[in-house]
Specification:
Strand content: 15-25%
Strand order of the largest sheet: 1-2-5-4-3-12
Number of strands: 14
Length: 325
């Protein structure tokens, strides 16, 4: 049974193969026929526009697909370029900031060389600006030798303020624009003095100027550095630039006049400052206190000239008279 089935399959294969060969020969014979050749040419000619249209459509589709791929690639490249551009801009801003800081610090250090006092440079790390106070915090403190009362200067060596609070690694500076700040100023041309008081608006007021003095607009005002009675030193050394006169208020009926000053130091934009470490204002030390000029040997004479001033004993107050009924 299985042999008979195999024989039938073999016959079918032979018949199919023979049929295909016969059809092939027939088609070859027909293809050489001039009529068939002309028919093929006619059909090809008739279908040529459609074929060209399909070819054009295929090329257009291929171009569109290529353009989409190119646009996607350009978009990715553009994103990469934007990211690189942002990185370079940030880096450039950092470089510019470092360059500005270096220029400011270099200027501060150059000013430092012109001071006769020992100074230390410090960076402003915080600000306190409100309707009541004008303070800045610097990043150095007692570890660097800074103490309360030290004078602070800013741009161009101009007076910026004084240290009012200090820690191991920080110090708070009361700016001259704070209302609690008072400095004895001196007009550069006439030498007239007055009290320079801070104003939160940024303009300083110099009051108690003798009305007889001529105050010129644009005139510089510096620290007077006046010593008071008893050898008390000024809290500020002499000659520090405070500001320039921008307005003068005179009253013919007053014995004093008022000048308005623009601070020489940009106190609201301070980034680096110099702290003067070895200037001692206020009361002198014990070894520098004024001495009594009366000799202790009982001679009743006077001592020869000495370097330190002599204290004059204050007169005892007179008793207050009383009225009896």
């Amino acid at each position: 049974m299985s042999g008979l089935f195999a024989t039938r399959q073999a016959r079918r294969r032979v018949v199919a193969y023979t049929t295909l060969v016969a059809i092939t020969f027939v088609l070859m014979a027909f293809s050489r026929n001039p009529a068939v050749t002309e028919f093929q040419r006619g059909v090809g000619f008739a279908l040529r526009p459609a074929q060209e249209a399909l070819d054009d459509l295929g090329r257009q589709v291929e171009d569109v697909i290529g353009a989409i791929s190119e646009i996607d690639r350009l978009r990715l490249d553009n994103q990469s370029l934007r990211a690189e551009l942002d990185r370079l801009r940030a880096q450039n801003r950092t470089v510019d900031e470092l360059r500005r800081e270096n220029a400011v610090l270099s200027a501060i250090l150059q000013i430092r060389n012109g001071f006769e006092y020992e100074t230390i440079a410090a960076q402003v790390i915080a600000r306190e600006s409100s309707e009541f106070r004008r303070l800045v915090t610097i990043g150095k403190g007692t570890d660097e030798g800074i103490s309360i009362g030290d004078v602070v200067v800013g741009d161009g060596g101009a007076l910026a303020g004084r240290v009012v609070e200090v820690g191991a690694t920080f110090a708070k500076v009361l700016l001259i624009t704070d209302t609690a700040s008072t400095v004895i100023g001196q007009l550069a041309s006439s030498g007239a003095t007055g009290e320079v008081i801070g104003q939160l608006g940024g303009v300083l007021i110099m009051g108690k100027i003798d009305s007889a003095e001529q105050v010129v607009l644009g005139e510089e005002v510096v620290t007077a550095g006046i010593e008071l009675a008893g050898g008390i030193r000024s809290p500020y050394p002499r000659g520090l630039l405070i500001g320039r006169v921008v307005e003068v208020s005179r009253d013919a009926n007053e014995v004093v006049q008022v000048a308005f000053l623009e601070p020489a130091a940009s106190v609201d934009r301070l980034r680096f400052v110099l702290v003067i470490l070895d200037y001692e204002g206020g009361l002198p030390g014990i070894d520098e206190q004024p001495t009594d000029c009366t000799p202790t040997d009982g001679s009743g004479g006077t001592l020869p000239d000495v370097d330190r001033p002599c204290a004059t004993p204050a007169a005892a107050p007179l008793p207050t008279p009383t009225t009896r009924p």
